[in-house]
Amino acid sequence: MIDVLIALTIGIVVGQLGRKVRWLSKAASLLTQWGVIALLFFMGISIGGDADVMRNLPILGTQAFALALGGSVGAFLLCLPLSLWLKRTSTDEEEPITEEVVE
After folding, report:
1. What is the count of structural domains for the chain?
2. Would 96 be classed as within a structural domain?
3. What pTM does this model have?
4. Which residues contact 14 (CB under 8 A, 6 or more apart)?
5. Range of the domain at 85
6. Is residue 95 part of a domain?
7. Within this chain, do residues 42 and 60 fall inside the same structural domain, yes or no?
8. Domain shared by 24 and 41, yes or no
9. Alpha helices (runs of H) in the chain, residue ranges in sequence order
10. Are 28 and 15 in contact (CB under 8 A)?
């Protein structure tokens, strides 16, 4: 675990030092994209090679779908009233903008 934290720290330092270097940002973006694709590929190999997971995939898939749906609906039901409340309180406290005309 410490090696992951060290790699992350070094990445943050290099990112901060190289913010002005355009090719470094593009390279990091491209490597990140391909890294995620490779990670998903190897996870697929691992899942496909596990007989227990493949045997229980219909049950796991249903449970995963129900969990994802419940999380999405719950987030929506919490965010909607919160968003309306924040919008109402922010408009109540703002002063109207008036333009001064200088002649």
Report:
1. 2
2. no
3. 0.50
4. 24
5. 56-90
6. no
7. no
8. yes
9. 2-17, 22-49, 51-55, 57-93
10. yes
